[in-house]
Amino acid sequence: MSSDSIEIIATSPMGLEAVVAREVRNLGYDQVTVENGRVTFVGDYLAICRANLWLRTADRVLVKMGQFKAATFDELFEGVKALPWPDWIPEDGEFPVEGRSHKSQLSSVPACQGIVKKAIVESMKRRYGTEWFRETGGRFVIEVSLLNDIATLTLDTTGPGLHKRGYRKLVTEAPLKETMAAALVLLSRWQAERPLYDPFCGSGTIPIEAAMIGWNLAPGLRRSFNAEKWPLIPNELWSQAREEAYDLVKDDIPLQITGSDIDRKAIDVALAAAKAAGLAKELTLQVLPVAKVMPRGDYGCIITNPPYGERLGDHGEAERAIRQFSHLYGQLPTWSAFILSPNKQLEHHMGRKTDKKRKLFNGRIECSLYQYFAPGGLYGWRSNKAAPSEQ
């Protein structure tokens, strides 16, 4: 595997594969393959650094070590042993094995994990001439994934999931993941010069992610990654990728981003997160019921994740909040709205059909992104001018 032709996998939440693929292409990598739950592309060591720093909507970044048929344990063992593990894992590297199996004859995941570990040890023995590996160095998490008797072996370059940006130390009940919040902003095609409001902002994730997008802040700048301790990827490349990211920051753009919530504790958490993200002065976050919200400005965008009855315990309160939101939105004729909700009756409560609807999963909960466009287009474009596609 040469350094300039590494197969890299960006894993994706269901329904966001096209968004992740667009992010990958925007980084300059055009050999992209999109499958359920993953986007594969070809890059080099620097691509690993850039992908970890920049991908807002992916879950993690993996190196694809190999793929082969494995209907028996012998096939799995020999296939794994033939892969170039010592090229990546040093003699003191820690290499735990995780696994999953679906529709495959090798259905015992613990047995497969044991076989993979044994095969990698055999490969390492040949390179390093030792019988024992201390595993006290950098962390190289290996995953064996079996699907229809095809084994895919990967190395996890990320560590804790990419949604862990580093700014959220506290959490509220049923928080929205940072990756999903970023996806909602990207799907809305909001631009930094326009107002943005989240009337159910909870811990502030949508406003914070919007601000990071508006200023072109790489979401991974405030955290570290497993692969930073890998000898094969020089520290200079991580430094280069970070310097590139700092050079691309556009923090001279004035932002008009506001979030509100009826829960004071949630707003306290949101304010702490905004401060940790370095964005406290750029965001307006306030305790306010949706019935009293009135965003300022024209041609703005509401992006929100209203309370779910099944998650927060009161269907009546959740539906009342949606109806109050509907009244609010009726007073904003130039604004577009993007609402993530599992509520099948949302259009009924809003009193109008959506312009577009997209199925997404918020964790394990099946939701729809209900999209309402301002008259004349997404943000008030002339009706004879098509709104940009989502890809």
TrEMBL record:
Sorted UniProt keywords: Methyltransferase, Transferase
Membrane-spanning ranges: none
Organism of provenance: Paenibacillus naphthalenovorans
GO MF, any single term: RNA binding
UniProt cross-references to Gene3D superfamilies, sorted A to Z: 3.30.2130.30, Vaccinia Virus protein VP39
Keyword Methyltransferase: yes
Name this protein carries in UniProt: N-6 DNA methylase
Family matches, as CDD domains: THUMP_AdoMetMT
Signal sequence extent: none
Aminoacyl-tRNA synthetase is among the record's keywords: no
